[in-house]
Amino acid sequence: MSRITLRVLDGSDRGTVYEGLPVPVTIGREEGNTVQLNDERISRFHIKIQDDQDKVVLTDLGSTNGTRVNGEETQLRILRYGDLIHVGRSVLLYGTREQIAGRLEELRANGAPIAEELDPDELARRAEDRPENESELLWTEEEDLRSTLHIPSPPDVPVGLSPGQAAQFSEILEYLHLRARTLIQAVTAPKDGEPVEMLYENWQDLLDIQSLLAEYLRKIGEPDAE
């Protein structure tokens, strides 16, 4: 069973540390949650964090105002040390200082480009110094919070799929690959430094692919949604 640490960086409960919580963990404003936050914009039972195949997974429980991880809306997300979880007006940092430092070292060892490092102590200090009349801290607009920890990297292919599931997953990827390849081949490579231009219908096709990916993400994150 995994144990996780969450630190509240912003919101009414800022400065609170939930250390070594055994998963599964639920977060919301109602009694009965593992972590009960004093935040009117959080749903009664907002998110759940649980183990699945040696990974820690966050699931939005159909909340009214949604959940963001590192500024991105999400229904289902594998958590990594240093992730910022936004629920309502509250911002939670996932992982201990040691775990986050270990992830930074791993990224360095793998040759990841190091931008501004995320310093948990500095984040906590900034949250504490925020004016009381300021409704929320816009973390995604802080340049020095766009650290290596939050640069998306290619995820691993899921393991343990049945042959039918693997075939279906492969079919989806092949479909998207073929559509993306068609768009790439339709673009004339410019000279160095010149912008790439594409036909309006190709731009619309690209937007359609983005829309399709958004639909896939929603269906995976909310399988029972109409």
UniProtKB/TrEMBL annotation:
Descriptive protein name:
FHA domain-containing protein FhaA
Q: Which InterPro entries match?
A: Cell_Proc_Reg/RNA_Proc, FHA_dom, SMAD_FHA_dom_sf
The FHA domain is annotated at: 25-74
Top-level taxon in the UniProt lineage: Bacteria
